[in-house]
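Action item from last week, closing it out:
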Amino acid sequence: MELMIEVTQLRNGTYFKEDGVPYEVLNYEHIKMGRGTANVKIKVRNLLTGAIIMKGYISSNRVEDVELEEKIAVYQYRTNTDYVFESENEDEPLEIPIELVGEQGRFLKKGMEAHLLFYEGKVLSLRLPIKATFKVKEAPPDARGNSANASYKEVLLENNVKVKAPMFIKEGDELVIDTRTGDYVSRA
């Protein structure tokens, strides 16, 4: 017997299962109109496909609770098809397909820890640290004129990702980058 949870208990960041598919709640909204029953509208991510959809429920509905396992793993290297991670609880390295990692793969560097989310023994998603430090590989010279507002230039990081950074950044500097957006945060 699966454990059921009321839809009114769902909140942003919680997980549930419906028709055998695990979902992550991205946005929760409880709506009560006049004398009628209350409704719950949620924006969810299908954890198997990554699709984002809207769902609506009457507030008395229930959904299945889902058993997800989270592990911390350390990035080692990339092959033609996979990113390879080591986890202290695993004997074998964890191979995660490039498609599943997606854009986040640009910010992986050897020795970086990542949180892996598992469902029925299969990796569903990977979450990197929000901020990571990278060395500047190439930076054009400071070509600032007499500008009154902040000026930016494009620099190339050690991971071959280009980011916009302030004019004072030079080759060899270490920058803190937001791995969710790819934006410059500060100098390390």
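Closing note: The radius of gyration is 22 Å.
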